[in-house]
Specification:
There is one protein chain. By secondary structure, the chain is mostly beta strands. 9% of the residues lie in helices and 27% in strands. The protein has helices at residues 60-71, 155-162, and strands at residues 4-6, 40-45, 48-54, 80-84, 88-91, 115-118, 131-134, 146-153, 166-167, 170-171, 177-178, 181-182, 188-194, 212-214. The radius of gyration is 15 Å and the shape is globular.
């Protein structure tokens, strides 16, 4: 089973990159403000709604691939199956699909709270469908994974998901990769692309390797 961490796109039992786990306090910075014309993706979950602002200028292939999957309904009904407190929440199907991969587009956006990245396995160009959202700053992931968006609305939802009870699961050669799974399913009920200029009022206070794991 391929699980990507923000890891990446790693097979659940073959995660190649070890993610650092320390619980980190949530940042108190402000999420980057949206720009006129920015395109967003809305994730309606069973814990509330989150809106992601995308970075097509910085990660064009990654963003195009993500939008293609969203438009096709790929994420509808998919779970956030990995939740590691102080690290990331990760969504997708564990890489169990025949979707194409995209080359690594590691740009200049840092892994701050709310950063949205493409998970992958040990191959830098193995990212595909798995994505993660950072629960706290994870600077050790900078330059190793593609940050292709930033949470724009719904920090309260992100933090609620990040605090759900989990069953601790450790994978990898030395069982050093945290792949903690929520005790109750956290589901993306529906995902859609929001037209530029259609963003509503933000909800939640903006603060500031993995399965296809997103970072350790």
């Amino acid at each position: 089973m391929s699980h990507r961490r923000p890891l990446p796109h790693l097979p659940l039992l073959a995660l190649a990159v070890v993610l650092s786990l320390g619980a980190v306090a949530a940042a108190a910075d402000t999420a980057p403000a949206g720009r006129p014309g920015d395109e967003r993706v809305v994730l309606q979950t069973n814990h509330g709604t989150m809106t992601l602002r995308l970075f097509p200028d910085e990660a064009p292939r990654t963003v195009a691939n993500f939008k293609r999957l969203v438009a096709a309904g790929f994420y509808d009904g998919k779970p956030f199956y990995r939740v590691v407190a102080g690290h990331v929440i990760q969504a997708g199907d564990g890489g169990e699909n025949d979707q194409p991969t995209v080359p690594l587009e590691a740009g200049g956006h840092p892994h701050v709270e709310g950063a949205v990245g493409l998970a992958r396995d040990s191959d830098p160009d193995s990212g595909s469908t798995e994505f993660y959202i950072c629960l706290a700053p994870r600077p050790h992931l900078d330059g190793r994974y593609a940050v292709f968006g930033q949470l724009d609305q719904g920090y309260d939802v992100l933090r609620e998901i990040g605090a759900v009870p989990v069953d601790e699961k450790w994978v990898g050669d030395d069982n050093q990769v945290a792949f903690h799974q929520p005790k109750e399913r956290v589901i993306i009920e529906r995902a859609w692309i929001e037209a530029a200029g259609a963003a509503g009022d933000g909800d939640g206070d903006a603060p500031g390797d993995d399965a296809q794991g997103g970072g350790r």
